[in-house]
Every structure is written in C-alpha cells, then in structure tokens.
Amino acid sequence: MSISDSFGGLGNISLNHLRSLVGQQLQAVGYRGELSDFHDATAQDVDQAVVLTLESVTVVLEWYIDGVEESLRLVVAPDEAATKDIPARDVSALRPWRSVVGSRIVSFGAATQEAETGSWFAWALRIGFSNGEHIVVALGELEGESVRYQPENLVVLSDPEMAQSYQVLDAPESAWGRDIAL
Asked: Which top-rank group of organisms is this from (predicted)?
C-alpha cells in the first residue's frame, strides 16, 4: 500500500511539494547544526537540518516539535525554516551523498506515526534517485552501530537494511516507509 492524497497527508510534508521535487537534480547537500566531524559512513547524525540544493530550489528537512507532535518537516522556502539562521556545512563529497549528487529525484517514501491528537505525521522520508540509490532522513540518532528514536535530532541512512530495521515503537512501518504515490 502506498501513501496518496487520500491518506490524509504527512503532517509537515506536503505531497504537492514532493511532487514538485520529482525530476529535480541534486546539486549539493549541507547539514545544519552543531558542526562536528561527519564521518564518511552510511549513517550520520545531523543536529538540526539537512539542506538539499536542487537545480531550481533549495529544500530543508528539519526536525519539528509543535506541542506534543514530533515530526519531520520539509520546507521549500529556506527563509521559512526554523533553522534558517544556522549555517550549513557542505557534506556533498561524503558518503552517502557523493553517490547521488548529480542524480535526479525519482521517488519518495515515508514512515508515519500517529500523534496524540489523532493526526498523522512523517518521522522518516526516503528519497529515491535516478541512479537506483535511496537515502532516508529520519528523526533519530546513532547510538553505537544502531539508531534510536530521538525527535530532536536527525539521522541520515543510506543502508537499506539499517533503514528497514529502524522502527519507532508506535509507528506502523520502519524508517524505509511506504512508497508515496505521486
């Protein structure tokens, strides 16, 4: 089963915005937040946000908390991002990004969870690229060799097995998520 308009949305991620990103070429990637050493690995901690520079737009994926609702938020107008004043560090040359810079976005998937209000929100977003690679950006943080849920941090996963094994207690699917029908 895929996520579609009839699903009711993804909270702070607009399906229309995702549709507009399909076909866009990824040109650069930056991480916002505490500037630590990012290791050249298939999983990376990101303190505040992932900034994707595409051929005609810059997109920010950031963690977002509104009261008791914890979610991943996609901002297509970077000036509206909560993290707009935090500088981004270019990580385009690091794994996992170096294998997809220059590729086009071809698909998305999302993992959702139900908030106490009964609304559904995305806690992970999978981006599929024209070279066959996928990268997942999710709420969480690395703890040794595994990932644990942390709504005030992001984790970037390029290993499909790691993304498929990362599960949030109340979520119906892993971070790999379900395909989004665009």
From this structure: Bacteria
Dihedral of CA atoms 58, 153, 93, 127 in degrees, nearest 10, equals: -60
Handedness of CA 101, 106, 111, 117 (dihedral sign): positive
- Domain spans, the chain: 5-179
- The pTM (predicted TM-score) of the whole model is 0.92
Ordered alpha helix ranges (H), the chain: 15-21, 160-165
Q: E strands, the chain, where?
A: 26-32, 43-46, 49-54, 58-66, 69-75, 88-90, 105-114, 120-129, 134-139, 141-143, 146-148, 154-157, 178-179
Which residues of the chain fall below pLDDT 50?
Answer: 4-8
